[in-house]
Write a structure and sequence with these properties.
Layout lengths: L1 H24 L4 E8 L5 H21 L2 E8 L4 H13 L4 E4 L7 H11 L3 E4 L5 H4 L5 E6 L1 H18 L1 H4 L7 E7 L5 H16 L4 E8 L4 H14 L6 E4 L2 H13 L9 E3 L5 H9 L5 E3 L2 H16 L14 E4 L2 E3 L1 H11 L1
Parallel strand pairs: 1-2, 1-3, 3-4, 4-5, 5-11, 6-7, 6-8, 8-9
Antiparallel strand pairs: 10-12
Helix pairs in contact: 2-12, 3-4, 6-8, 9-10, 11-13
Amino acid sequence: MRKKRLAALLAALLLALALPACSAAEEPPAIRIGVAVYLQEDTFISTITQHLQQMAMEEEQARGVKINLSIADSRGNQSVQNEQVDRFLDRGCDVICVNIVDRTAAAVLVDKAQAAGVPIIFFNREPVEEDLNRWERAYYVGSKADRAGKLQGELVLNAWRFSQEELDRNGDGVLQYVMLEGEPGHQDALMRTEYSVRTLVSAGVPVEKLANNNADWQRGQAKMRMQQWLDQLEKPIEVIFANNDDMALGAIDALVEEGIPPEEMPFIVGVDATPPALAAMAEGSLKGTVQNDAKGQAERMLELCCKLAFGEELPPEKITDGHYVWLWYTAVTKENLTALLGELS
């Protein structure tokens, strides 16, 4: 009887010792993705990272893998971002995603990634083409900046064509506008600024620029610029172009402080279609925006990360010139606003 008990105890002990080994063998494969963003406080960038985190959890379930996602805020400092990329590489990240602070500094990061043999994906801020071409495993996910400007211009052009009397407040037949720009020298800022106005001029609309200034994509700075213009400009502002929604909302903040109701505000257009901007459109203070597909960017980035990390074939139909994954801008108007708000709820 004692021998049987000892045999049973020995069998149980052997089983217990075997279980951890089995569990370890069944651990799901894991990938590590490092994400460095230029400024987490930027509403649009924050929206992308939120989508990315949610989609990573969904992808874990779908693939049966573990995705370790590390997000670092570069606080608008390229040197800090370079150090963050170094840390990601030291930690053994399988893929690095970068929303670069200074688009002209991409070569340094591409070289770092290439030396470590780690694919690098830039997103939302397009690097110089020559820098992407330095290595076959460097990519960009985003939208073409000129199209956002064109769509902004078309929003104003349609308003001019169908309600010119309402838009032309002083009745001089000329569209007076101000321009809130992003960072000096930033490609998106330059292209959106140029093509928004070019679209009107090409259509034969007489325009007059009353003022322009950089507000670095930030709501607070845009509010300050707008307050200055309200104090200084003699002619009425009929249109406010903003290179992004945060700056458009900053202009609205200044107008609200002046006691101007939404129906009496200039025709204001932004870019990004962030949730606060869509709410401002529903309220009537923001007249239009251009959707920069935050969800689509997060989806394409994660898809690319997983395929690169697991050595899967990249879909050639989604990659242009070996490096670019393009998404499309879409104009947001009263007609499609309800549908977009429904997606947020």
